[in-house]
Amino acid sequence: MSNKFTHRLATTDDIPIIRDLMDRAIIELQKAFLTDEQLEVAYQFMGIDTTLIDDGTYFLILHSEGTEDETVVGCGGWGKRATLYGGNHSPGRSAELLDPAIDRARIRAMYCHPEWARKGIGSYIMEICQKAAQDAGFSKLTLGATLAGMPLYEKHGFREVDRRMDTADNGVEVPVITMIKDL
User: Fold this and answer.
1) What per-residue confidence (pLDDT) applies to 1?
2) CA neighbours closer than 13 Å in the CB half-sphere of residue 104
3) What distances in angstroms separate CA 180 from CA 62, 107, 130, 143, one per listed residue?
């Protein structure tokens, strides 16, 4: 991994930066996989989940090119609660805490700035999150993948166990793929 990438835990002060990064990533990196209509409603199923920030399980990925200035190039985290994916506004959320002895930690809300795609940021986030979940006692992981994210997750040992369509308020359907991995 490039030594130019570092990470830190996200704080509530970072929410505007995270929201902007997510919006850019959704529009640019999903457009090859979703129709325009699906892109418009994707925000109902994706976005910022401040519970991850509050729980101390959400990271910012930073890049610096030999200066003190750092650029946020990605973000992502892991969840110890039952919610598999979605933002604060998404339906079907659950704050129930998971039991590391029997439950799968959730890999959550991974986004890369489009200008930094395919440069190892997704793999860096995966490494950080898997280690943090393992350090918290989890030996199994799950995630809700987009079609765009599946190749990264497969590269990191996840396998598909379910594929379904989430239906937006206006009836437009967006694919969600549930994937799992044992550590």
Assistant:
1) 43
2) 17
3) 27, 10, 12, 7
What CATH number does residue 25 fall under? Answer: 3.40.630.30
C-alpha distances in Å from residue 106, one per residue of 21, 139, 169: 21, 11, 25
- Please tell me the total count of domains within the chain: 1
pLDDT in tens, 127-148: 999 999 999 999 999 999 999 9
pTM of the full structure:
0.92
Report whether 67 contacts 108 (CB < 8 A). Answer: no
CA 35, 39, 33, 84 dihedral sign is negative
Contact between 90 and 47 under an 8 Å Cβ cutoff? The reply is yes
* Residue 151 belongs to domain spanning: 5-182
